[in-house]
User: Which sequence fits this backbone?
């Protein structure tokens, strides 16, 4: 047998001002050919599961590309064409028995808001009968184009995404059984006009805890091969944005449909719980000051790098300084120019920086506002480390040239590349022990839990400024379907079918 195995991942925040060109993929990871295997074999990714499945089957594999970029604005057309082109060119050479794809599901490119749907549609045009298995991120915005052009689909069931390998293995095995003629999967799906908020999708909390448990319960039926609920990605002003469900059943489309309906009914009934409730920043920080057990995790969730945040908004840091919080470690502020300045000054030097605030954010009516601070260059590093925590385990990552800047009781990790702090390596790789800090301010929303939940004595969400805000009144949606909850009043409406 001969398999095509590829990865193409980007969570596109259409409100983010950060450009997504090919270099941004290279900054996080863009591998081609044999290098794909070297980079991902043995890691906690769906791609690694697909490689293991191929090895087990003794299949010949072609790995044209594995690319991922940190979330940011719409993918430049040239980058999208390049990445999809690698996959389509390989497929065009023919001779494949199946394809296994590790995709995100929320990639929006210039001129192609449904990036994955566009890829799958063109794959089907080239190879109309090719069996295709896809593993998507829980934040994927699913579409008819995606589902009708894939054979079987699965999503992660945990957020933070610690089950990426498991989810890939599950759907890879489903396709393998079909290839051997032992199974005939039937797939169905549905989408809701519901912009569920990322802060309300953590699978340790309701309502997502119940939704994912319902998927696991459905899969206890041996005829349900995969059941997924996708929270979707709400920072995407595109028509397909929304919560959805996909069910794959053995031969029986009606069984799949009934299970899918149960999931969508349950999600619609809980729609209000998918919306985040705000608290004024000043009050939340004052509340943090009263906590005595450490470390306390503070989340600058409106500037969450992992959802397209610029990671350089200083609003929350300014408030912590104003209220005099002490013994704080910040992970991290993106400011390559400040890092350069600190590298020239050297460890131990006292410097005055205009830190952060280098990016304007027109979509939230905010101008970049640096914070002038005087402090000490505490440490410098090349920013490279290997992830040992439960998410992206085994991956080599880098924040580029990185520095620790110390001022007024706050140690700020300043990076040259964007990076969401889901692993304690963001601190330990540059000499900060997060266990011995009183406060850990993270530019994250839910993924921080992978590395930090085991040490956090308390967690407080802080409403700052940024393009991952959960305040819909700031954002201008022009392209989402209407009506859609919570932008439109739909509280008492029965579940719309679709
Ligand atoms: Zn995700």
Assistant:
């Amino acid at each position: 047998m001969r398999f095509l195995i590829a990865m193409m991942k980007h969570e596109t925040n259409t409100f983010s001002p950060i450009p997504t060109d090919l270099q941004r993929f290279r900054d996080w990871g863009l591998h081609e050919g044999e290098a794909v295997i070297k980079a991902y074999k043995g890691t906690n990714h769906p791609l690694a599961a697909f490689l293991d499945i191929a090895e087990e089957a003794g299949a010949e594999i072609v790995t044209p590309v594995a690319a991922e970029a940190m979330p940011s604005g719409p993918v430049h057309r040239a980058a999208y064409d390049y990445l999809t082109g690698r996959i389509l060119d390989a497929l065009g050479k023919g001779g494949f028995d199946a394809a296994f794809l590790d995709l995100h599901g929320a990639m929006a490119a210039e001129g192609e808001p449904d990036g994955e749907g566009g890829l799958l549609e063109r794959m089907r045009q080239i190879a109309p009968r090719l069996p295709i298995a896809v593993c998507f991120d829980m934040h994927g915005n699913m579409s008819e184009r995606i589902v009708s052009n894939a054979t079987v689909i699965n999503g992660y069931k945990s957020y933070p995404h610690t089950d990426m390998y498991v989810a890939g293995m599950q759907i890879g095995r489903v396709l393998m059984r079909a290839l051997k003629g032992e199974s005939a999967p039937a797939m169905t799906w549905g989408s809701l006009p519901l912009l569920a908020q990322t802060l309300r999708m953590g699978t340790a909390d309701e309502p997502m805890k119940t939704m994912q448990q319902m998927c696991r319960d459905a899969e206890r039926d041996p005829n349900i091969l995969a059941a997924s609920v996708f929270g979707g990605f709400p920072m995407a002003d595109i028509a397909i944005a929304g919560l959805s469900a996909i069910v794959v059943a053995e031969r029986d489309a009606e069984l799949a449909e009934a299970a899918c309906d149960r999931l969508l009914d349950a999600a619609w009934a809980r729609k209000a719980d998918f919306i985040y409730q705000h608290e004024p920043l000043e009050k939340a920080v004052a509340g943090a000051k009263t906590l005595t057990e450490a470390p306390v995790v503070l989340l600058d969730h409106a500037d969450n790098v992992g959802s397209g945040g610029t990671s350089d908004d200083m609003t929350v840091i300014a408030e912590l300084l104003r209220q005099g919080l002490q013994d704080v470690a910040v992970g991290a502020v993106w400011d390559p120019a400040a890092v350069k300045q600190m590298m020239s000054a050297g460890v131990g030097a006292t410097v005055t920086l205009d830190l952060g605030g280098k990016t304007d954010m027109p979509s939230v009516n905010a101008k970049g506002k640096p914070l002038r601070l005087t402090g000490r260059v505490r440490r410098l590093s090349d920013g490279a480390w290997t992830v040992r925590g439960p998410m992206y385990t085994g991956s080599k990552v880098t924040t580029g040239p990185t520095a620790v800047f110390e001022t007024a009781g706050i140690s700020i990790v300043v990076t040259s590349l964007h990076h969401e702090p889901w692993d304690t390596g963001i601190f330990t790789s540059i000499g900060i022990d997060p266990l011995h800090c009183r406060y850990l301010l993270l530019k994250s929303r839910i993924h921080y839990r992978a590395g930090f939940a085991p040490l956090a004595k308390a967690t407080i969400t802080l409403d700052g400024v940024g393009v991952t805000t959960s305040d819909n009144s700031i954002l201008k949606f022009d392209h989402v379907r209407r009506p859609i909850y919570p932008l439109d009043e739909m509280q008492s409406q029965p579940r719309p079918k679709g």
